[in-house]
Design brief:
single chain, about 110 residues, 4-stranded mixed beta sheet, 3-stranded antiparallel beta sheet, 2 helices, 7 strands
Length: about 110
């Protein structure tokens, strides 16, 4: 019996953590974050026209990211965090007017 317990414990320790295990609480309240499924790079006036408050972003570039929660614009000057699983993740919540509001974005170290 103790060998089975020991083996189960070792397997649990060796299993990589799910992404939601490393999202900080200020970004995710258990269901706000998800891996990014699609990225569209944007530049110039198209970015500024998509922003509700263009003064807070660099209108020269940005990216539109899509997760299972929806799509959201990531302005070029939005703070980025390093992804712990080397995949892109976005944390977003419903905002005003049916749009999504970006809370945090996690990028692989190379991006």
């Amino acid at each position: 019996m103790s060998r089975t317990w020991l083996l189960a414990t070792l397997m649990a320790i060796a299993t990589p953590a799910a992404a939601h295990d490393w999202y900080p609480m200020e970004c995710c309240h258990g269901m706000d974050c998800a891996p990014v499924e699609k990225v569209e790079m944007l530049s110039g006036p198209s970015v500024a026209s998509m922003l509700s408050s263009p003064a807070h972003a660099n209108p020269l570039d940005g990216m539109l990211v899509t997760t299972k929660h929806g799509s959201v614009l990531v302005p070029a000057n939005f703070p980025r965090r390093e992804s712990k699983d080397h995949r892109m993740h976005a944390c977003m919540r419903p905002g005003q007017g049916g749009t999504m509001r970006l809370i945090c974005i996690f990028l692989p170290p190379a991006i």
